[in-house]
Amino acid sequence: MAVMMELWELEKFLEKAIEECRKVINLSHRGLTIVTGRLAGAVGARNLLLNHNKLLVPPEEMCSLTNLTELILDNNMLTMIPSGIGRLSKLRVLSASHNPLVAIPEDVANLSSLQCLWLSNCQLSSVPSCLGHLKSLQKLGLRSNELCRIPEELCSLSNLRWLCMDDNLIKDLPTSIGGWVELVYLSLNSNRFDEVPLSLQNLPSLVSLHMRRNNINSLPDDTIVALSFLYCLDVREN
């Protein structure tokens, strides 16, 4: 259960965190609708947790916390991520799942250290091609959105190891998926595929493929042979 925090309590909390040079600022489950400008003083923070609140607008002050390595914004009412987020060059983990986001700002592409990006259940109908610039990205979660396609530019994520796009509207894969040379795990459950794409044989590291609850009605021998390197192939409920 969320503990409702009054503004004066928030100010006192942040003042103490700044005074003690806390590395972790945990403001999750506090019923917050806004975060005061005092947050900008927490320059030594490495982890900022704002999940499970009632934020409509993300605090712009967080974009000045250039030492952040983890930013958690899950389960709020955010319709945007501030455009200044690209200044967080040390950020490794960004999670904004379960928010009604309208779009992802272009300067997310400047997060050169980002390794994990979680944007599940955000009502996204598209993802910007600029995400293809996140060369350090290893894990990407985009489940439960309204995506119809995967941008070709995402195939340049050569360090991507884990990708989940369950519960979307995707019918096929980009032609350049061979660029995912490190991809080990791919989950495409509950989409619109009517076959297991043979192009998946171009993923040299793939060992686990999940395509449950699609529209696949057959699994030809040549597909089975082409994907025989897999340790796990899950095509149940088709």
Automatic annotation (TrEMBL):
Location of the Disease resistance R13L4/SHOC-2-like LRR domain: 60-165
Keyword Cell cycle in record: no
Superkingdom of the source species: Eukaryota
Pfam families linked: LRR_1, LRR_14
Alphabetically ordered keywords of this record: Leucine-rich repeat, Repeat
Entry-linked InterPro entries: Leu-rich_rpt (IPR001611), Leu-rich_rpt_typical-subtyp (IPR003591), LRR_dom_sf (IPR032675), LRR_domain-containing (IPR050216), LRR_R13L4/SHOC2-like (IPR055414)
UniProt key word Repeat: yes
GO cellular component, one term: cytoplasm
Gene3D superfamilies the UniProt entry points to: Ribonuclease Inhibitor
Protein's recorded name: Disease resistance R13L4/SHOC-2-like LRR domain-containing protein
Provenance organism: Elysia chlorotica
